[in-house]
Amino acid sequence: MDMEEQEPIFKHGKICYVEIPALDIDQAITFYRKVFSWEIRTDNQGNANFDDGTGGVSGMWFKVDEPVTTSGMRVSIMVDDAQQTLDDIVAAGGSIIETFDPQSDIPIARFADPSGNAWTIYQHGSE
Length: 127
Known about the structure:
Blueprint: E1 17-22, H1 25-36, E2 39-42, E3 48-51, E4 58-63, E5 76-79, H2 82-91, E6 95-98, E7 108-112, E8 118-123
Parallel strand pairs: 1-4, 5-8
Antiparallel strand pairs: 2-3, 3-4, 6-7, 7-8
InterPro entries: Anthracycline_SecMetBiosynth (IPR052164), Glyas_Bleomycin-R_OHBP_Dase (IPR029068), Glyoxalase_6 (IPR041581), VOC_core (IPR037523)
Domain VOC: 14-124
Pfam family, one: Glyoxalase_6
């Protein structure tokens, strides 16, 4: 990674850790690494952990036996290019729930990862 390594921000109220259900943890690792370039590491208990592309949010996957079908929470991932990211999502085994409006000043789209977890992508500063 070219970015200069920075210490995470520790501040009250910051979202800092996310646990993501996965039918197949290896598939989840491949998906998030390919689509979002997340850094993957293994903790001393053998769990697969991730750090997002900014180093600001960490988390891990946990094994589930059934696809995720409902979620009340919506979490957005910032991307540089919404259309390219949607293409990458499909190529990596995810699916598009709702595509973005190309006329919108801020492209926002929803997708599901291979385990059915719904996320939103958000393209900031589009022209």
